[in-house]
Design a protein that fits this description.
The chain has 121 residues and is mainly α. 93% of the residues lie in helices and 0% in strands. Helix 1 runs antiparallel to helix 2.
């Protein structure tokens, strides 16, 4: 009887080691998936930010030259566009929690804590 218990414990010990090893590998895969998702989304954000910034730059330059022609005073268009950017920057800093921080926190929560069964449906 004692030999049987000893054998069961030894077999159980090997099974526990194998199960823990598999669980560690599974956890590593989940972490790799999450990290790669965050990395890809970061790259997409950076590329989008670059293109949106470039588009805004050229639109601002075009608007500034257009306003210069309308007012027929050199520099007026650039002053008005700069004032618009200062106003936008003020609004951005004033509402940064609502417009920036909260959406980013929600995105990370959705990435890190989403239910895997929802993805398969």
């Amino acid at each position: 009887m004692l030999d049987e218990i000893k054998e069961i414990l030894e077999n159980g010990n090997d099974e526990v080691k194998e199960l823990s090893s598999l669980e560690i590998r599974r956890t590593k895969l989940i972490i790799a998936e999450i990290c790669s998702e965050v990395f890809v989304k970061g790259i997409l954000f950076a590329v989008s930010f670059f293109f949106i910034g470039t588009i805004l730059f050229f639109l601002a330059m075009g608007a500034a030259f257009f306003l210069d022609r309308i007012f027929d005073v050199p520099g007026t268009g650039f002053f008005l566009i700069a004032a618009l950017f200062v106003l936008t920057l003020f609004l951005f800093f004033h509402f940064r929690k609502k417009w920036v921080e909260s959406p980013i926190v929600r995105i990370f929560i959705n990435i890190l804590f989403r239910n895997k069964t929802e993805d398969k449906i």
